[in-house]
Amino acid sequence: MNRINLAGLLYFLASVIILSSIITADAFFPKEQNIFATDLMNMGESVQETGVSYRPYSTIFNIIILVAGAMILSATFLLRKDFKQALLAVTGFGFGLGLVGLGFFPGKMIPYHNITAMVTLIAGSIFSISTFKIVSSPFKYISLLFGSVALITWSVAVFAPTSLFYFINMGGTVRWVAYPIMLWLAGFGSYLMHTKQTELNIHSKKPT
């Protein structure tokens, strides 16, 4: 296994454990509350406005997010020499650091939580789009599509929130940003796991 394969494995596993933790967190969400009315990024928060604990899984969720962020950082570090384009390395590291920040700063730790959530979603979206130039078709179009969906949804949510919140609430909107990134990350990891060190289109070759 070369470093590209190992990086792919780390990206893939990071995506899997994040999605698994979200599914588990959703399953334990209080039945009396609308899960899609809650910001996905607040799943790591352990108390309500009243101070009554209602999310016993929050510590596990935060640890998983921390681990996933560390895995993404490690994978990006392994590829630092291959990512000749600065944007790839910067957004890859930003994505990982954002997740680590979310693990350390759950929902009510304002403004740190908001900052890390923004970094995570923007960096993850641009990271996906940026890989368009280093992977082959058809996956390069999938990278462009998924990253664009996430970035456009985030932009609409920030600049015209009522246009989305009215239909799918805050939770649904954030999921439309986060899920495309996580699904793309799983695909990117799989792509790298099956790529030879001389086959990644980073240096002079153009994707075909």
Walk me through what this model shows.
The protein is an all-alpha fold. Helices cover about 65% and strands about 0% of the residues. It is built from six helices and no strands. The two termini are about 25 Å apart.
Brief write-up:
This protein is mainly alpha-helical and 208 residues long.
Number of strands: 0
Percentage of residues assigned to helices: 55-70%
Computed Rg: 17 Å
| Mean pLDDT, all residues | 82
For the sheet with most strands, the description reads: none
User: Uncertain segments of ≥5 residues (pLDDT<50)?
Assistant: 49-54, 202-208
SS strand fraction: under 5%
Order of helices and strands: HHHHHH
Q: What class, by secondary structure content?
A: mainly alpha
Overall form: globular
Number of helices: 6
Tell me the distance between the termini.
Answer: 24 Å
Give short descriptive properties of this protein.
208 residues, mainly alpha, 6 helices, 66% helix, globular, disordered C terminus
Write the layout of secondary structure elements.
Blueprint: H1 3-27, H2 58-78, H3 86-104, H4 112-130, H5 139-159, H6 162-193
Helix pairs in contact: 1-2, 1-6, 2-3, 3-4, 4-5, 4-6, 5-6
